[in-house]
Amino acid sequence: AIERTFSILKPDATERNLTGAINALIEKAGLRIVAQKRIRMTREQAGTFYAVHKERPFFGELVDFMTSGPVVVQVLEGENAVLKHRDVMGATDPSKAADGTIRKLHAKSIGENSVHGSDAPETAAIEIAQFFSGNEIVG
Ligand code: CMP
Hints:
Layout lengths: L1 E8 L1 H5 L3 H10 L3 E8 L3 H7 L9 H8 L4 E9 L1 H9 L12 H5 L8 E3 L3 H11 L8
Antiparallel strand pairs: 1-3, 1-4, 2-3
This protein binds adenosine-3',5'-cyclic-monophosphate.
The site of adenosine-3',5'-cyclic-monophosphate (CMP) has 9 residues, from helix 4.
């Protein structure tokens, strides 16, 4: 089915001027960028977005990192978009990511791992709604 997923190009990617290179990989994977904006996340936005991880030991570090520089938030659309995007991102830990994936090519570490993608269509809907209104998404 045609799905939408939520994507973030993280501060380590914007800092190294990699947004175009990563978007090229996303588009080459067959996904369409139907919404996109560059923002600076507030600590409140990052905390809400990663609320599921708030008891993890890396939560503070994660909020610090995600608010340390600009990010690009996106809505991606395509056939099986959630899984397709997870495939092109590669494993969370770049040392375990498959060849040719965004994280294998570009990520610096498990924390500074260049990109985020939703883990399921239900999560995608919640994450998209946190950052985009309906009229900002043009399919
Ligand atoms: P993301 O897909 O954005 O969702 C949660 C993030 O937590 C994950 O990517 C990683 O960047 C980050 N993360 C996961 N494990 C660790 C860890 N052990 N140390 C630091 N950050 C982590």
